[in-house]
Amino acid sequence: MSELIPEVGTIAAFPKPVLNQLLDNLRRMGYVTLGPRIVDSAVALEAITGLDDLPRGFTSEEDGGHYRLVYTGHTRYFDITPAAQSWKQFFFPPRSTMFTYRRDNGKWQIEPNPEQAPSYALLGVRPCDLNAILIQDRVFLRPEWSDPIYRSRRQNAFIIAVDCLHPGGTCFCDSMGTGPQAATGFDLSLTELDDLFLLKVGSEAGRMVLGGLALQPASAFLIQSANKGLEDARRRMGRSLPQPENLPEFLLKNLDHPHWDKVAARCLSCTNCTQVCPTCFCWDVVDQPDLELQSSQRVRTWDSCFNPDYSYVAGGNTRPNTRSRYRQWLTHKLASWKHQFDVLGCVGCGRCITWCPAGIDLTREVAALRLESAS
């Protein structure tokens, strides 16, 4: 029997242990393989080598201000929904050195950062997170300008998406059009059934890593099973945000609505929502000199629009209170982002709801604002 290597856009199937061989192929090609694993009773995105590292048998519970891993003993590897970490940390790191100043004979010289960009292979990228990566591409890889740190990491990446058949209580990707099925932007996409994976090839790079794998054509029965699982996932979505296409106009017309005060009374301005969001990109730049003042590193670090110092300019603070900061975050995410990047800045992953200590739910706040503005 001849070796089956599917064409781009076609679907194949393989037994789950074959995934180990796929990861081996990627490492032989120079990739660092990353995926979800259990670390200290939490899900972390870290280096993995095979199936034994994945969270087999686990599922997760999410609600406003609540996340808990639950072990059920099932045989699936990707039933958990995304935890606090997102994949953006590998392309837009929380901390990165831009360059170094060094004193040489009384003069300062600028040395570029010598760090080589790693080649990451990401396994288990949910459709919501995949869309978040594509949104950050619009932010950092614009036609008129591109961020060199992001570009060097992003162009080397290999993405293996996994369709979401078990959405969580705070997920609303279906209403945002970003899930539960991966549509584009991946090299390979998997759909996990009980005994095997369906595999869709999304790029030529994806085809290149399939050599030597025991693949078989995907039957109509398997494809129907996957489609049924996706339809069930859409019906079991924990949240929804109806009519997102109307949000930019609606929110920008209600900037002075008193409902913002109700949200501000609960918001702690803790920055959790922005730190776990897979699309937020606020940053700060700081210089860190050594003790002898002979060199200094310029470092970019994550920041947040909820940080009071972030909006401080000469003459005062443009967003001096929690009300103005929460309104800025939500209206940027769901309104002015569309004007800037021609896409909304929310993918419906639900992290901002899950990891908010006050349990603030943007889907409910938007619904309440719609109701109050109509009365």
Which percent bin holds the helix content?
A: 25-40%
Write down the overall mean pLDDT: 94
Strand content: 25-35%
- Largest sheet, if any? 8 strands, mixed
Give me the count of strands. Answer: 18
| CA-based shape | globular
- Widest sheet: strand order? 3-2-8-11-12-13-1-14
Number of spatially distinct domains: 2
| Alpha carbon gap, first and last residue | 69 Å
Which stretches are low in confidence, meaning pLDDT under 50 for 5 or more residues running? none
Radius of gyration: 22 Å
What's the total helix number?
Answer: 13
Structural class: alpha+beta
Give the helices and strands, then pairings:
Blueprint: E1 11-15, H1 18-28, E2 32-39, E3 42-47, E4 58-63, E5 66-71, H2 88-91, E6 95-104, E7 107-112, E8 120-125, H3 127-140, E9 141-142, E10 145-146, H4 148-154, E11 158-162, H5 173-176, E12 188-192, E13 196-201, H6 204-208, E14 216-217, H7 220-235, H8 247-252, H9 259-264, H10 272-276, E15 283-289, E16 295-302, E17 312-313, E18 316-317, H11 322-341, H12 351-354, H13 362-374
Parallel strand pairs: 2-8, 8-11, 11-12
Antiparallel strand pairs: 1-13, 1-14, 2-3, 4-5, 6-7, 6-16, 9-10, 12-13, 15-16, 17-18
Concise structural overview:
The protein is an alpha+beta fold and 375 residues long.
